[in-house]
Amino acid sequence: MPVVRPVSLAIPPHGVLAVESVHCAEFEMQLEVHPFHELYYLYKGRVQYFEQGMPQAIPFTEGAFYPIRRDVNHRIEDRSQATLIVLGLSPEYINNNADRWNLWEELCTRQHLPIYPDRATMDTLDKSYRRLVAEQSAPRIGSASVIRAEMDHMLVALARLPDAPAATGADARVASVLRMLEDSFFEEWDVDMAAERAHLSRRRFSDLFREQTGTSFLDKRNTLRLEYASRLLAEGRQTIAGAAFACGFGDLTHFYRLFRKQFGQPPKEWVKQLGIRN
Question: Structure pTM?
Answer without folding.
Answer: 0.78
